[in-house]
Queue: 2 jobs
Job 1
Amino acid sequence: MITLADIHRLFRSDEVETAALRSIELQIDEGEFVAIMGPSGCGKSTLLNVIGLIDRPTSGRYLFRGQEAGELDEAARARLRRDNLGFVFQSFNLIDELTIAENIELGLVYRLWAGRERRARVEAAMDRVGIAHRARHYPHQLSGGQQQRAAIARAIVGQPALILADEPTGNLDTENGEQVMDILKSLNAEGTTIVMVTHSPAHADVAERVVNMLDGRIVVSARRAA
Ligand code: ADP
Ligand code: MG
């Protein structure tokens, strides 16, 4: 599904240059569940942003389903994102002024489906993560665990092939973290590819493969014993 070849990402300011990614070689197959681990600042979020077509590498090749992402203009990249990707963040990133159902519908904002179809998809996504009873509530009225499940519903409502999750359980207690992991696990069992940054060895254990990073490099990429 994804091939990264000799990817570098430099951040330059007047005084400093940071090599956030160095010589990254990574292949991700359709249907995989990959966990990315490593200390704070080692480049995990930068890698996820490159994979998610949010950020462009300074050099290197990125193939997404056979397409050279580096050769696409912003409009084409936005289309690829819309049609293929769902994002989940540590801090949920729901919009406070919108209800949960409206937040989830944002996941369909560029889709041309008619009203009835949209509502059915939003309903199905809410059912999927167990928050249908909170549809008309606002984010601040929900617990952290419920907010993250709503954020997952927003990510999956467009039925993406790939979910990118940046420390999705980082702000949750153990029980809510487990619920989020159960949802990701079942999405993966149905064929959704998942790339998840985590600091939790237990949550990384759910993945088929763990990629360990240090100082912008991949130091180990190990498949879990079956
Ligand atoms: P992680 O997610 O593993 O904590 P990041 O990918 O966020 O690490 O950051 C990797 C390195 O790149 C860090 O040194 C960070 O300060 C730097 N960095 C990330 N984003 C930017 C940016 N937009 N501008 C400048 N430096 C950045
Ligand atoms: Mg990060």
Job 2
Amino acid sequence: MTTSRPLVAGNWKMHLTPSEGSSLATEILARLPRHSAAEVLLLPPFTCLSAVGGVLAGDTRVGLGAQNCHWEPAGAVTGEISAPMLAGLCQYVLVGHSERRQLFHETDSIVRAKLESVLRAGMSPILAVGETGEERQAGLTRAVLLRQAKAGLVGLERAEVLRCTVAYEPVWAIGAGAAAEAAEITEAAIILRSVIEEAAHGGAGGVRILYGGSVTSQSAAQLLGAPGIAGALVGGASLRAADFCGIVAATGR
Ligand code: PGA
């Protein structure tokens, strides 16, 4: 059982310039109800954080996060962005997205180091985990989720675990146009919940588990109603204000 507000996070990935991002954020604010049952979060590219933050300033309905960070606080690492650099701009940082794991060869230990750097900088990590299509075919879903979630969470201080969110994103469902079945999502949530409880030494019902992978405003109510799921990590549909706000509305029901 989760005890906190559902969270709907829009992962814009490598899309939108600062002015385009500002327009999208403005449209999202205009479409959101005055009081939403769900917490709403935007994860724009680094280059949009400041502009989108300006649009959201003073509006408590929508928070801001980054999609990635480096694990060191500073150094000779050309082209990278550290957690302390983000701390004044946003509240959340996504770590371990499958596109980072696959395209940039991020291992479980790199993801863990990033997650710790986010915590040290005073922000909240969203840890993404999920099996590939091949791993699913081979019956490895449970093993992969246990490995990724344990590598991310076990050994943290209890108070640190309580600041985390975990996103179950089956890799085969991302951008696929077809989401996982509710039963599979629930099964994954049970596995992830067991790791969260182990890492926190119990009593971690407030740590949210999100589902991500082809969530749309049409599918949201069914997907996010899956037992154990407290919100969504949305990719493609988060770039369309009407669709994204439809997902928020479905989650808050
Ligand atoms: P999608 O992406 O909603 O486009 O499937 C989800 C994600 O990658 O976070």
